[in-house]
Design brief:
single chain, Beta-galactosidase, Chain A, domain 5, 14-stranded mixed sheet, 28 strands, globular
C-alpha cells in the first residue's frame, strides 16, 4: 500500500511518497518541488524487486538554503548559463538576475527558489502520485516578463519513479522556455567502479567558461563516446549530449545500476556533470543545451499563447545478471 504524508526537512515543508515495501520519495515544494530523497526497488531481469536502494545524493540540511550544486532542483524557465543574464526575444532585450556573480551568468532559472502549490495527491495499492504547480507572472522576476504555468507530477510505484513536467503559456504573447531536472545519482563504492552507457551520438563543445560554442560534434573517437559503455574512473564531465533516449550508470562489480528513460519529444538532451567531490553523477534531462536563450538553435522552445508542452522522465534501479 502506498501513502502520502507531510513532514518538515529543516526549515522547509516536505511531502513524502512511500510504500510499506520500502519505496520512498521526499519532495520539497518550498524549493521549487526539488526531489530531496529517492528510494526505489532494484529490479531483477524479470522486473521483480530484489532490494530497495537510495539512489540520489541530496543536500545536507545546512545546504538546502545555500543550494551549492542544484541537487534535485528543477530548471525552469531556463536551463544552463545565460552570459551576463542578457538575451533578446522577439526584438526586445531582457536582463535576468545574475545568480552566479563570480561568473557573471544567470544559471538554471529561478523555480528552484520558488514555493510551489499543491494541486492533488493520490495513493492506493499500486502507486503514490503528487501534483504541484506554480504560475510565474510578469512581475515576479526581472528579465522574464511572461506568464508561465509549471505543473510537476511525481509518481512512485513498484517499478520506479516518474517525473512529468508541463509548462503552459497563460499569457497573451509568445514566450521562451527551456527546462530540465538536476538529480545527482549515487551507487555503492567509489566512482572508479562505475561506468556510464548512453546512446548519444553528438555532444555540444563549450568555451572555457562552459558557454556552448554553438557547434554540435560527433562523439566518435572522443572521450565523450559512451555508446558502448565507458568507466568513469578518470572522467571529467560537465557536458551536454544530444538526442539520447536512455542513460545508465552501473557498478562494474555488483552490476547494480540506475537507468533513466526520457521522453525525447521534450527532454531530447542530457547534461552529465561530475562534481569535484566525485561522490555522485548529475544526470540532467534537459530540453536544450545551455544558453539556448541566446542561441535558439540549441533547443529554445517558443510557446504560443494558450499552448503547452509536457515531457516525462522515468528512473529505475536494476541488477544485471553476471
Amino acid at each position: 500500500m502506498y501513502s502520502i504524508h507531510k513532514t518538515q526537512i529543516g526549515l522547509f515543508n516536505a511531502v513524502v511518497l512511500s510504500s510499506n515495501h520500502g519505496e520512498r520519495a521526499v519532495i520539497i515544494p518550498d524549493l521549487g518541488g526539488m526531489v530531496h530523497e529517492l528510494v526505489v526497488p532494484v529490479l531483477s531481469p524479470s522486473f521483480e524487486p530484489v532490494a530497495y536502494k537510495s539512489i540520489v545524493r541530496g543536500d545536507a540540511l545546512e545546504e538546502l538554503s545555500r543550494n551549492p550544486y542544484y541537487r534535485g532542483r528543477f530548471m525552469v524557465p531556463f536551463c544552463g548559463r545565460i552570459p551576463q543574464g542578457v538575451y533578446r526575444f522577439q526584438g526586445v532585450e531582457h536582463r535576468l538576475y545574475v545568480n552566479m556573480p563570480e561568473e557573471q551568468n544567470a544559471l538554471h532559472g529561478f523555480l528552484y527558489r520558488t514555493s510551489m502549490q499543491l494541486l492533488s495527491t493520490q495513493a492506493d495499492e499500486s502507486a503514490a502520485e503528487l501534483r504541484l504547480h506554480h504560475i510565474i507572472k510578469p512581475d515576479d522576476e526581472a528579465g522574464y516578463s511572461f506568464t508561465l504555468q509549471v505543473i510537476i507530477t511525481y509518481r512512485l510505484d513498484d517499478q520506479g519513479f516518474t517525473v512529468t513536467i508541463t509548462v503552459a503559456n497563460l499569457g497573451k504573447e509568445a514566450l521562451p522556455v527551456t527546462l530540465g531536472w538536476h538529480p545527482y545519482f549515487m551507487l555503492d563504492g567509489a566512482l572508479s567502479d562505475w561506468q556510464i552507457t548512453m546512446d548519444a551520438d553528438l555532444y555540444y563543445p563549450t568555451k572555457y567558461n562552459l558557454i556552448p560554442t554553438g557547434a554540435l560534434l560527433a562523439v566518435g573517437g572522443t572521450s565523450y563516446d559512451f555508446r558502448a559503455g565507458r568507466p568513469l574512473v578518470h572522467a571529467q564531465l560537465d557536458t551536454c549530449f544530444a538526442f539520447p533516449s536512455c542513460i545508465q550508470l552501473e557498478h562494474t562489480k555488483t552490476h547494480v545500476g540506475i537507468s533513466m528513460e526520457i521522453d525525447r519529444q521534450v527532454f531530447n538532451r542530457i547534461h552529465v556533470f561530475i562534481p569535484p567531490e566525485r561522490d555522485a553523477v548529475a544526470v540532467e534531462p534537459v530540453s536544450a543545451a545551455g544558453s539556448a536563450f541566446t542561441m535558439p538553435h540549441l533547443g529554445l522552445t517558443v510557446l504560443r499563447p494558450a499552448t503547452s508542452k509536457t515531457g516525462w522522465v522515468r528512473v529505475q534501479a536494476f541488477m544485471r545478471e553476471n
